[in-house]
Amino acid sequence: MKPSIIVSLALPLALAALPAAGAKSQKPPVKQTAPAAAAAEDKDATTAEFEKFREVMEDSNPAELFEMKGEELWNEKRGPKQVSLAESCDLGLGIGVVKGAYVQTPRYFADVDQVMDVERRIVHCMVEHQGFKREDIAKKPFSNDTHTPEPVSLVTYVASQSKGMKIAIPQKHPKEIETYRIGAEVFQYRAGPYDFSCATCHGADGKRIRTQQLPNLTKPQGAIKSYLGWPGYRMTGGVMHTLQWRMNDCFRQQRFPEPGYVSDSVTALLSYLGVNSNGYTYKGPGIKR
Amino acid sequence: MTIERKITAALLAGAVFATVAQAEDRNYRAEAIAMIKKDFRSRGIAGYERVQEDGLQAVCNRSGNRPPEAIAKQLEQDQLASVKLPADGKLMGDWKSGEKIAQSGRGMTWADKPGIPGGGNCYNCHQLDPKEKSFGTIGPSLYQFGKLRGNTPETQKYVYSKIYNAKAFNLCSEMPRFGHSGAIGEKEIRDLVALLLDPASPVNK
Question: For residue range B46-63, what is the model confidence (pLDDT) as tens digits?
Fold first, then answer.
């Protein structure tokens, strides 16, 4: 392990305690005429503080560890069939090509006659080419403090190979267009005991839950937040997560039942978010609050 | 068939939103709903049945949250009629307990345990006690709500009913229907009314 990585893994633990301490050091409640003024002031303080931590960490990005692990997994001959993904898996730009693949998925894959996002395609390759069992992969698909699933490291590696490239999710094949349109509808669909949809929390500018900023994902300037910094190393918990996890956890907050891992509904949402982000430059795996 | 159901049925038949439907050669919404029904499954207390929209959700989903005014008014009345006010007529409880309920964001997710009382999530969306700096902005600030709106029986009834069923006053409101959905009970709603209206509550200092 490179020393820089050891340092960067220790850092978030030290930093994790800081935001709470920062929240306590508020100015005494001043007499307010307009409550809205206080709101704006506080939002800036909290955001600024988090941005500061992010800067401290970004020069030795903890995501690198997962990129390295993912690169190994990509190149190694593995699974019951003892095949590597590098020699068998087509992420849309040709077998084994990782450069630019992340910023051009979700996309249509003729071999399955389906639109797939990058994680779904990687899982597909692990099952079809390497012979892993889908049920085994889907059993525990998300990271926790003791376990990082292989697709997470693989997605992080593939994503790192699109650093600095423009997001260009294709909208040529009829199924790509259809998937985007369905994704837009999934995004707006209100149901469940709280009557929430994605749009309840992500449908307007400048909103937040507690102090967490809620990007307006219906507009390009907001939607790009679903690419920038993802896959992301989360300071809270110290784990690496992909957008599959982000979608899953937002459905939890939406009080919905659970979406299937790498299911059509999640691909449709990622198409919607991705196409809305087209044209922006992707900066590689990052750090999230 | 309730009025709500009848109107929903009319909407589904496309009577009201024919223009919207005509603009599409395909019904992507129906395809999205079918996809969700295929892909989701129960987890913990978040049962599969939640993917099914109820009458009100269907109206809001089909109108981009802007139903025609006549329909909105009728359905709001339906929602208001279903609000259960406390039998003893007491609408204000203890603001201190209300503050705790407003703070708690717990409830109704698949990670929540069954039988544990849910929270109000109020600070997720509203400013209340100005000392609490961690508040969301999906809803308006409720700081000084009682000071500005008074503490009359009518105001108490309005606030109780709003928390019980926010849609009774604004059909496609982003605010959940806390009493209607059973997320919180009578005592909790009373305590929240006190948090908003009691002159002693920090909200009104």
Answer: 999 999 999 999 999 999
Residue A3 has pLDDT above 70, yes or no: no
Residue A118 CA to residue A102 CA, distance in Å, equals 7
pLDDT at residue A22 tops 80: no
Q: Residue A273 has which token pair?
A: 């978010």
Q: Where are the domains of chain B?
A: 3-69, 80-204
Cis peptide before A231 (omega within 30 of 0): yes
Task: Compute the average pLDDT of residues B170-195.
Answer: 97
- List of chain B residues whose C-beta atoms are within 8 Å of the C-beta of residue A23: 133-134
Nearest C-alpha of chain B: how many angstroms from A118? 18
pLDDT digits (tens, 9 = 90+) for B81-101: 999 999 999 999 999 999 999
DSSP per-residue codes, A125-192 = HHHHTT---HHHHHHS-S-BTTB--HHHHHHHHHHHTTTTPBP-----SHHHHHHHHHHHHHHH--BT
Say if the Cβ atoms of B41 and A260 lie within 8 Å: yes
Distance CA A114, CA A178 (A): 11
| Inside any domain, residue A262 | yes
Beta carbons within 8 Å of A164's beta carbon, 6+ residues apart: A281, A282, A283, A284
Q: What is the ipTM of this complex?
A: 0.90
| Cα–Cα distance for residue pair A273/A267, rounded to 1 Å | 10
Q: Cβ B108–A194 below 8 Å, yes or no?
A: yes
Catalytic residue among A89, A125, A201, A250: A250
Q: What is the mean pLDDT of chain B?
A: 91
Active site residue A250: yes
Does the beta-carbon distance from B32 to A189 stay under 8 Å? yes
- What the block records as the tokens of A30 is 């001043």
CATH number at residue A245: 1.10.760.10
Residue A81 falls inside a structural domain: yes
**Cβ-defined contact of A190 to B61 (cutoff 8 Å):** yes
Task: Record the tokens describing residue A209, joined without a space.
Answer: 């839950």
A35 in a structural domain: no
Range of the domain at A134: 60-288
Pairs across A and B, CB distance < 8 A: 150
Chain A: closest CA distance from residue B165 (Å): 11
Q: Is residue A14 part of a domain?
A: no
Of A246, A72, A189, A4, whose CA–CA distance to B60 is shortest? A189
Quote the number of domains for chain A: 1
CATH superfamily of B80-204: Cytochrome c-like domain (1.10.760.10)
Exposed, middle or buried: residue A74 (CB in 10 Å: 0-12, 13-18, 19+)?
buried
Q: How far is B114 from chain A (nearest CA, A)?
A: 14
In this complex, do A32 and B130 lie within 8 Å of one another by their Cβ atoms? yes
Judging contacts by C-beta atoms under 8 Å, the chain A residues touching residue B38 are 264
